[in-house]
Write a structure and sequence with these properties.
single chain; 3 strands; binds FE2/S2 (inorganic) cluster
Length: about 140
């Protein structure tokens, strides 16, 4: 049911952890399953993502998609990272079962939420970026755990 890549990224997730003083942090949740994903971005002065880490409290597909998403955004510019859709993450994982597609949306939204946080912290506007709907912010997130 799962591709080898999904199983690989689930059993051996890349970039797990947090980044201290991250340039941007995004936390999103899926109201239906209750799963939570947080992505940390380290963005340099040229707007290039130098590092990316994640913490996911969720299903295997959510862990695998977070892991792959962090691999995909590393080294990208903000604009390039914005173009990484859940579809691109799924393709990089050789697909997900249809019932698990929503899990990959969490990864796309977590990246957007982290970029949104970065933009807010720096008082800039990122072309084409909208505030993620499932951004659950800090306070609410405490309750979720
Ligand atoms: Fe919730 Fe996968 S079931 S993210």
């Amino acid at each position: 049911m799962y591709s080898d890549k999904v199983i690989d990224h689930f059993t051996n997730p890349r970039n797990v952890g947090e980044i201290e003083n991250a340039s941007g942090v995004g936390t999103v949740g899926n109201a239906k399953c209750g799963d939570i994903m947080r992505i940390y971005l380290d963005i340099d002065d040229n707007g290039v993502i130098q590092d990316c880490k994640f913490k996911t409290f969720g299903c295997g597909a959510a862990v695998a998609t977070s892991s792959m998403a962090t691999e995909l955004v590393k080294g990208k510019t903000i604009q390039e990272a914005l173009e990484i859709t859940n579809k691109a993450v799924m393709e990089a994982l050789d697909g997900l079962p249809p019932v698990k597609v929503h899990c990959s949306l969490l990864a796309e939204e977590a990246i957007h939420a982290a970029l949104w946080d970065y933009a807010e912290k720096n008082g800039i506007k990122i072309e084409g970026l909208e505030k993620p709907k499932s951004d659950i912010g800090e306070e609410e997130e405490e309750e979720e755990y």
